[in-house]
Amino acid sequence: MNLFESGLIYPLISAVLILFVAIGAFVRPAIFRIALRDFKRRPSQTTLVVIGLLIASLVIAGSLVAADSLEGLFVENVHQAWGPVDLQVGTLSGAPFQASKANAILEDPKVRSLADAGAARLEIRAAAESPTHETSEARAGLIGIDFDADEAVFGKFQPVTPLTELGANQVVINQRLADILGVSPGDPINFAAISPAGEPFVLQSTVHAVVADSEKANWKRQPNAFIRLSDLQEVARVPGQVNQVLLSAKGPPRAPRNIEALGEAAVDAAAVVEAQEPPPPPGRVNLALAVAESKGRDLDRALETSEFFRAVLVMLGAIVALTSIALIVNIFIMLGEERRQELGTMRALGLKRSGLVFLGITEGVIYSVASAIIGSLIGAFFGRFVGKAMADLFKTFSELSSVEFAEPPFELRIATLLTAAGAGFLVSVLSVAFVSYRTSRLTVVAAIRGFPEVKRRKGRRVPVIPGLSILAGLPIVLASGNVIAKALGGVVFVYGVGGIIARYWNARLGLTLGSLAGVAWGFWAHAKLNPDFDRDPGTAFAFLGSVGVVTVASGVILTSANLSLLRLFSAPFGARARAVMGTASGYASANRLKTGLSIAMFSLVLYMIAGFAVWGEFGGGDFEEQSGGWDIFVRTTLPVQELRAEGAEAQAGLFAGRYDRGYKVGQESRTDPIFFYGVGADFLDENRFKFIRKQRGLTDRQTWDQLVSVPDSVILDGITAPSGAEVGEKMIVITDRGPYELTLVGITTENILNAAFMSKETMLKLYPGRASNTVWLVRSQPGVSDRSVAQSVLRNHREAGTEARPLREIIELGAQFQRTFVGLFQLLLKMGLLIGVSGLAISAVRTVLERRHAIGILRALGFRRSMVAAWLLIESIIVATLGVLIGLGVGLLGTYLVITLQIDDYIFSVDWNQVTSTVLLIYAAVVIFTAIPALRAARLKPAEAVRYVE
Amino acid sequence: MIESRGVTRVYTSGPVEVAALKDIDLFISSGEMVAIMGPSGCGKTTLLNCLSGLDEVTSGEVVVEGTSLAKMSDADRTRYRARRMGFIFQAFNLLPVFSAVENAELPMLLVGERAKEARRRSMQALEIVGLSPRAAHRPAELSGGEQQRVAIARAIAHGPAVLWADEPTGNLDTENASMIIDLLVRLNRETGLTVVMVTHDPVIGSRANRVITMKDGRIVVPDDLPEDEPAEEESAEVAKPKSKPKGKKVSSRKRS
Questions:
Q1: Record: contact A347-B87, CB cut-off 8 A
Q2: In angstroms, how far is CA B114 from the centroid of its own chain?
Q3: Nearest-CA neighbor of A840 among A584, A580, A561, A595?
């Protein structure tokens, strides 16, 4: 097992660290005892710290468990859809072939030696209708099987109603179809479909039995009806023919099996069968049999999809972990300051520097163990909630198709929990170790007497780190092919230069210039270097997560280095307000590290929330842009020559075909299933779809007309086109006769149809059998409701297996899906905001303790109670505001730069509701959490406060 | 026992350099009780910190029991402090999370002394300072005088050779201050413990065997002293006890 890939390296290192502390506790019991006592010294503060820290573990665990659950859902879906079937042998277009060929493949000795079982089927997508109940299902599977042979592959049906031998034209239906149609055994049921030979047919049948939705009956997770193979062959007018051979490799269905060898054997067997085939009649070709590793391909897609979500979720977890680091560093710096005198005393009494570091680490381990365990356990259930919510979304969205999603499994893997707890633990302990090292460098004498730390004298040494940064950063920028390394290399370089300026000229100037250049470089990298989200989503998210964070960090450093400028903002106010503002900004700028870390906690989270507020709006929502001027989307199973739609103003019939064989645009390959639409003059005259990309100088209409004027041209939509695709590039698709080349003439802004538009002539070259309209786009007359038009289409064409749905509903559902999904990501991020808020709360509580003396002096000098409260409140608001501004600024501008690079005419759109509600939430939390300590500070009596010694 | 040779300590604050100690030569014998006195900011505490190894010197050398502190690493100096020195501070500097006895045993535990032995010796030390009945109390439950007595117990429990006391009575009222100084004198006399204390209180200083007076970072010559404080000897850059007249310029006022 690879410890790094599995993530188990984190719990392993954690265990080593805990062991180290345990040994240390045995060897140095005094230090351990101090750490234990400190832990329970201030229970409320300790509770806040543990809560802050456990949120990191919680979000990490939540992200990982949600990712596991999604992966489990996608994989489970594939297993349930395909059952034990690994391979499908058939023609690429689904055209039928002689059953004797299927038998020859099944009887092939090599295939038999590698396969557990195999069976031939005739499967047709059909519209099912119950004349008794007047119910219908537009897309059911009508499957002709040899009941005995099929049992060898799929096992037995699990009957819900008694199942005996089928009579002629009787069907066994699964529970799902029975529920949709409301039918039971004995009820008539009709099917309408286009046969694999391209002929429409109607089957009038009777329900013989209902079977449970086991793997066998729930084939492809769709409503299914099973009929004797010979009956279906007859009614579909393909006597003695089947359209697929299903093969199952030896071994348990969910275990790794030798599918590759079986695939090779099947390919060889198919080749032998084809070689024996007589030559085709003149003008015809023999269709090649292809072997498709259907289940494996779907499993790969499932893993690919879940990897995408995992990448997003892990990035969110990482952002929250970074926020948590800022919190931990801030807290332990504060604790270090609070206990500085004690630590100095211990150093005087004989505690070495390493002892102080060990003390810090021990305390960190105590805090971190508690928070990591509690956090990851709560996080597991939080992750379950997020995973379930995401899975439910998929389920809702799948209403658009007839494919049902599996119930999301609760994937609670021990390894994931350990990884989350370990990662959360390490984040805490390593941050504490860093701060402890910093604290251990205190000057004993100054610490004992409570004097400020003596500034170390600048040595005459060569500035090694800035020098190395320049030497390392520049070659990476110039030579590295990795965009993330290139982007980060630039940042390292500019900070190196800043370090040199700081060393030889002026520290603040160096920091300011370095961070300013860091911000500028970060934005440039967003615009010019960001990787393609389609091609490599993992790298793209890692890029946003790293370069974005570095840009935010540079913004925070730039702000922290120039906090003294805050005083300028107090200038326009009256005397009293100026005094309060000046004090608030003065204190905020006096401790740059502490203020900077607090700003970072907010800006990191806001950066991601702002990014998602843009991504959530990206490509969704705008009805005109998405609908292209159409109101209703109609799909029929049987071809319809003329659509009868009462209340329609315009309509266009499209040839339609689902394409699932992978395609290439330019250098980019994609495997997702898409839809080919053959369009004619009615569509070209009436559609109003707009373009992201088209040939320069052409109008939208002229671009659409290119489908007719440019031979074999294609227009893709926002979903099917790879993000870097350019007009003029070639799109290669696979047909039964081999690869076919199309020319890309435009990319539409629409992204709900998952479409490749082409002329009807071009479509017929790809699908010779699809010379009929099975998809219609309809525009309603003004004042007529889309729903009533859709209802009339359903009424008039029920027998054709019709689905008619207002586009507004589809678009809204899609937008809602995207928004809700993004909302779930934002929910995770808002957990990160809790860290920021708890950080400010701790800081406010500590501030009152630390500044009692100062508060006393200011009260003695004339500060009213309200002014003291306002001062502390304003200071917190200043910190939160700076965090909000930096986070929003980098998030919005960075995302804008990333998207506009990929889309020419992108109209920048932000979910301002999300942004404003988050910002309001932050301010509300800041005011609430700061108000209590601020009011407590205001109640201090000046004389007591001045004399205050803790 | 403790000798400083040309010790100078310069602090830097931005572009400004301040010499807190200027070329200090000093010898303190074993078993002496020495008071370092002088006006605020004259360098008393800095001298004590440099002699005890809490602070580093800018130039010169401090030799304690024949070993140069400058030649020791930070870790060695720390270990040496823990084994051979005891400290008392003006603000007591007890750890608030520990009880009196736990505070007293801390230095021993830090150098790896067995817990039982550390407890026995710290109880003994508390007995000496008269606080054994309050051994289980935390600093917050003790008066200022009691806290300083715990600090003394902590400083003597491990049997150090030198006790450094920086304004040990600075935060106490007269009665408690008197009690603390009595205790230090008793320890010095009965156990032969070398005591070096910084104080600005002439009454407290008068209890020491020898007083070293400082001004502006130097050990002052008698002419620099106020007229009402008679100097016994001519100027002294090196202050040594009369009992060990090794130096040429001695400026201490030995009292019995």
A1: no
A2: 27
A3: A595
**Residue A117: strand pairing partners:** A248
Residue A159 is classified by DSSP as B
Tokens of A674: 């898409």
Determine contact, residues A65/A416, Cβ cutoff 8 Å: yes
Percentages of chain A per state (helix, strand, coil), in multiples of 5: 60, 15, 25
Q: Which of A466, A442, A438, A436 is nearest to A454 (CA)?
A: A442
Nearest one of A558, A904, A853 to A726, comparing CA atoms: A904
* Sequence-distant (≥ 6) Cβ neighbours of residue A74 within 8 angstroms: A302, A303, A305, A306
Q: How far is CA A466 from the centre of its chain?
A: 37
Helices vs. strands in chain B: H and E counts, helices first: 7, 11
Report the residue of chain A nearest B15, measured CA to CA.
A457
Cα pseudo-dihedral A869, A872, A877, A883, rounded to 10 = -170
Q: Is B97 on the interface with A (CB under 8 A)?
A: yes
Query: Pick from A228, A188, A193, A181: which is nearest to A204 by CA?
Result: A188
CB of B91 within 8 Å of a chain A CB? The answer is yes
Q: Are β-strands A290-292 and A663-665 bridged in parallel, bridged antiparallel, or unpaired?
A: unpaired
**CA geometry: angle at A894 spanning A889 and A899, to 5°?**
135
**How far apart (Å, rounded) are the C-alpha atoms in residues A878 and A889?**
16
Residue A474 neighbours by CB distance under 10 Å: 16
Q: Are B252 and B208 in contact (CB under 8 A)?
A: no
Q: How far apart are the first and last CA of chain B?
A: 20
Distance CA A30, CA A351 (A): 10
Q: pLDDT per residue over A169-209, tens digit each?
A: 899 999 999 999 999 999 999 998 888 777 788 899 999 99
- CA–CA distance, A632 with A643 (Å, rounded to integer): 12
Q: Which residues contact A205 (CB under 8 A, 6 or more apart)?
A: A169, A170, A171, A188, A189, A190, A191, A225, A227
The rounded distance, in Å, linking the Cα atoms of A174 and A209 is 9
Distance linking the first and last C-alpha atoms of chain A:
54
Q: What is the amino acid identity at position B15?
A: P
Residue of A nearest to B156 (CA): A349
Residue A290 to residue B64: CA distance in whole angstroms: 92
Closest Cα in chain B, distance from residue A941 (Å): 22
Q: Which of B18, B1, B47, B11 is nearest to B199 (CA)?
A: B47
- Of B177, B112, B167, the C-alpha closest to A448 is B167
Contacts B115 to A, Cβ<8 Å = 29
Q: Where are the beta strands (DSSP E) in A749-881?
A: 755-759, 773-780, 802-806
Question: Which residues in chain B are closer than 8 Å to A450, comparing Cβ atoms?
Answer: 91
Query: Chain A within 8 Å of B213 (Cβ-Cβ)?
Result: no
| Tens digit of each residue's pLDDT, chain B (256 residues) | 889 999 999 987 767 788 999 999 999 999 999 999 998 889 999 999 999 988 889 999 999 888 888 888 888 888 888 888 999 988 888 888 889 999 998 888 887 888 899 999 999 999 999 999 999 998 989 998 999 999 999 999 999 999 999 999 888 888 889 999 999 999 999 989 999 999 988 888 899 999 999 999 999 844 344 444 444 443 334 444 434 333 333 333 344 3
* Dihedral of the alpha carbons of A750, A755, A761, A766, in degrees to the nearest 10: 160
DSSP calls for A886-940:
HHHHHHHHHHHHHHHHH-TT------HHHHHHHHHHHHHHHHHHHHHHHHHHHT-
Is there a contact between A768 and A676 (Cβ–Cβ < 8 Å)? no
**Contact (CB, 8 A) for A905 and A611:** no
The closest CB to that of B106, out of A30, A352, A445, belongs to: A30
